Every structure is written in structure tokens, then in C-alpha cells.
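Reviewers asked in the last cycle whether our approach scales beyond single polypeptides. To address this, we selected a multi-component target totalling 441 residues and predicted its structure end to end. The input consisted of the following lines:
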Amino acid sequence: MLDDHLIGVLSNMGMISFIALSAYLVLVVGEISFGQQAFFAVSAYASGIASAMWGWPFLGAVLWGAAVAGLAGLLLAIPTLRIRGLYFAIATLAFAEMVRLALEIFTYQVEQDGELVGPNGSEGFRDIRYIYEADISAGEFLLVILALLAATLAIILWIERTRLGAILRMVGEDPVLARLQGVNVNLAKIATVAAAGLVAGIGGALYAHLNTYVEPKIFNVMLGVHGLAYGLIGGLGTAFGPLLGVALDIGVLESTRAFSGYRMIVFGGLVAVLLIVRPRGLLDEAAVYRVRRFLLRKDAGD
Amino acid sequence: MIRIPALAVLGFALLASPALAGERAAADVACEPTAEALVYSCTIAVTGRKSAEPVTAKALSVKADMPSMAMAHNLPPASATPVEGKPGHYIATLELEMHGEWALAIEVNGKTAETAARVRDKVIVKQHFAPGHAGAPKQ
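The resulting structure, written as C-alpha cells, was:
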């Protein structure tokens, strides 16, 4: 049996993996986003409202939160279509800060059972207590997180093996060349940023329900930087890369608890060293190619 | 080994609309610094939110998380043990990693002292910890 702390750590790893995968999708099409935490936030609030205030079932609330986050991704993708590189990165950061500041003043409460429930500006949104009302344990909720993460990962890995996956890589490598090959680069980018929003949204909905409360401060730039860094640490050659980044970072942080608050410096150091040594992460395209070739040879040998 | 009926129950719970179950909890937290830096002794008074009756449990779990570094900067759950002769009062020791604002998630699984209503809840209490000062509710 897992103890409470391990369940908590694994749950955190699972939930933050959604932001990591979300940032990875944007990286695949050649852009850097510091704002994926915005979609996590939008979904946390939207799904919390659905289950705690409207009485929706959990899975309905998660789907609703993810859909709203995907729509927010679409709203970000369209006006930022003409900007690239550093400018896109700054635009995503600005968008995330706009969302966070909007949540600081967002108030929508209803009376339930003699108490006010709902988002209350900077005080946050408490009592998203579906799992307590449905009597779901933390261990059972971990299974839900892992199941949704596995399903999301499987879909991304499947897309990567299709023609669409090749098109997205092509857009990321050289959008001009992709356009010359007849690829609709604009559509590819809009769809990817919206899908990235949806993926982050799944994580946000899970976070709100596990923690029972959210507040705007949680969704600051640190969360986005972590999500982005996981892809850069783990590698951009496969969707397993961001998950490897999550495992390495949280694994290192958990195993260096003896260093107290100083252990957080490890994270910055890890990113800096890896960006110098392996600019596209541990599982970069070359590493993935070598692994695939090895597996194919092994199959042929058998 | 996870059994299929258990998964079926979980699946039903995730698809069903939530139904209010049992009494909800409220908690007052007072944290005092100890002789050791960043170590705080916290007294937690837990009551039923409606009945205001003390909530009795064998132990409570207190997990501290920094909202500004969610999911990355948190502490292992600390066990809060009952204070003898004071129903609904518990004491826990928190070993923080740094000062600042922390959200204490108090996991309650017990019963109200008189009516024995089941209480399963998570109460979030935000506290600001500063060097040499008692933890103060976030203003």
C-alpha cells in the first residue's frame, strides 16, 4: 500500500504532467509558451463551478473544464498567429497574467446549504469537494489521474506516428518549407495551441477537485515555467520527454528534502545544465531515432 | 491487486452527481514558533461547521503547500494528535522549508462528539509565517 505522502507526490506528478504535455505540444510546432498555466486555471475554475455549484458529475465537470480551456487556447491562438519566437512567448505570458488578474476580481457565488459557494476574487474558490461527497479516497483519485494521463499520452503518441504528427513537426522545424509543401501552417498552429489548452485543462480540473480549493496565486508564472522546463529537460523527441522531465525534477526535489528550501535551486541548475549539454532535452529527436532503430533491429533479429 | 467491482464503484462515483454526505468541518489554527528555526507547533480546533460540536478523530493529517509554488513546494503530511481533555483539539508540528504564506490542508476523518455524525472533509487554512512570529491567518 502507498502512504499518504507518496500518493500526494504521485498525484502532483500526474497533474503537473498535463501542463508539461501541454507546453510540449506548443514546442513541437516551434513556439515557446510561458502561459500554459492559464488554461490549467481556467479549467480549474470552470470544472469547480460545474461540480460544486451546478451539481454536475465529476467526469462531466472535467470535460467541461477541458473544453473551456481548449476554447481559451483558441482565443489565444488566433490573435497571436502572426507573431513568432520571443514575441509569441511574451504574448502567452501576458495572456496568462491577464487570466490570473481576472481571477483576482472574479466573483460568482451562490448559496448552498446556508453557505456561499463559488469563486470569490483573491480569496479563491473553496469547497470543490466532490471527492469527499462521493467518498473517493486519495488513492482512488490517483488512479483517475493516471488513467486520464495514460489516455492523453496514448492519443498524443498515436498522433505523433500519423501524417498529422509529421506535419506538426514540419511546421515546428521550418514553417516556410511546410507552407511550400502545401501544409496549412496557420490551421496547424491554431489547432495545436487549442489542443494544448485542452490538455492543460484536464490537469487543472483534476487539481481543483483533489485540492478542494484554488486561488489565483497558484497559477502564477512559476507553474508555467515548470511546465515548459519539463519538456526542455526530458526532451522534445517524444511525448515521453515531458514526463521524464517531471519525474526527474520532482524525483530530485523529493530526494533532496534534507537541503530544505535550498533544494529548489536544484531545479534552476538542472535546467541550465541540460540546456547547455542537450539543448533539446534528454530524449531529443536523435535519441528517439536511435532507440527506435535499436528496437527495430532487435525485432528483425528475433 | 485492484478488483473489478472496486473499479466499477469508483466509475459510478465519478459519473454520479455528488450527494451531500455527513457534516462538514471548520478549523481554527494557532501556530507558535519553537526554539528550532522554521519549526512551528500548531494547535488545531476542529468543529462541525453547522453543529459547532467538537470533532473527534484518532488523528488528523496536516499538509502544508505554498500556493505560490503549487505542486512543487509542499511538505509531507504531518500527523496531528488529540490534546487530552480538550475534545476537538489537536496538536501538530510543522517543519517548514521557508517563511511566507502556506496553505494548510487539514484532512478530517472523524465524528462529531455528541451526535456522532460522520465528518470527512478537507479544510484549507492559510497562514503567514514570518521569522520569530506566530503564524498568522492570511489577511
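Chain A has a mean pLDDT of 92. We regard this as preliminary and will revisit it once experimental data from Aim 1 are available.
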